[in-house]
Specification:
mainly beta; single chain; 225 residues
């Protein structure tokens, strides 16, 4: 079922508030103390997010075709992404703030079209992250931490255009927020991000330009080692 723009923003704001609450409530440095030496770790996560559908603009590849270009807003449509994320971080001595870097490989699926015609867009993407986690430490007890990860990504878009399967390029950038519960070996949490993306798929006579602008929200589960 489609969600209105106002509902999407409300859900996203609720996610952000929940994330911040989890992160702040989970950080108890005064109870456990901070490490006297650097702590280096890795994380492998599996996630699912609800993602905004793209706005679509169809343009003529050849001005002599006589075909009429068109465009339409993605409106309230939503898609989804499933992904695998790897992060590596280091917490300096006497600190709870870690620098982290990593990458995500994901596969997105979105329905585009109008009331009469719809088609499915498949987008494989590779995103690179560099940012920060606060509240993480080497511990055997349950605790929380938060993260802030700017990212950029490249990938492809697969769609049926002019009755043929077409493959184009896709690029994106965004800001991702997360809050997690963790202990020594596992981690689980909520994520939300704001994403800007662009994709172009060329056909023989017409091409599609897809523009993404909106919030994602979902969750992840994984392991810390």
């Amino acid at each position: 079922m489609a969600l209105s723009r106002s509902v999407q923003l409300s859900v996203s704001a609720t996610c952000v508030a929940t994330l911040l609450g989890l992160a702040v409530s989970g950080v108890r440095a005064e109870e456990e103390g901070v490490a006297a030496k650097p702590y280096t770790y890795g994380e492998l996560r599996f996630g699912y997010v609800s993602a905004p559908g793209p706005d679509v603009r169809q343009v003529n590849s050849d001005s002599s075709t006589g075909l009429t270009p068109y465009s339409y807003n993605g409106g309230d449509s939503r898609g989804f992404r499933v992904g695998v994320t790897y992060l590596s971080g280091t917490v300096p001595p006497q600190s709870l703030l870690a620098n982290v870097w990593g990458a995500q490989v994901s596969l997105g699926s979105y329905s585009i079209g109008n009331q009469s015609v719809t088609t499915r867009v498949i987008q494989p993407m590779v995103d690179l992250y560099y940012g920060w986690q606060y509240g993480i430490m080497e511990t055997q007890t349950l605790r929380g931490f938060g993260e802030f990860l700017p990212y950029v990504g490249v990938g492809g878009s697969h769609v049926k255009l002019e009755e043929k399967a077409r493959l184009g390029y896709a690029v994106e950038t965004g800001l991702r927020f997360g809050a997690y519960l963790t202990e020594h070996t596992w981690t689980a949490g909520l994520t939300t991000s704001y994403v800007l993306g662009f994709s172009k798929i060329k056909g023989d006579q017409q091409s599609l330009e897809l523009t993404t602008n909106g919030f994602t929200f979902g969750g992840e589960f994984g392991f810390r080692f």
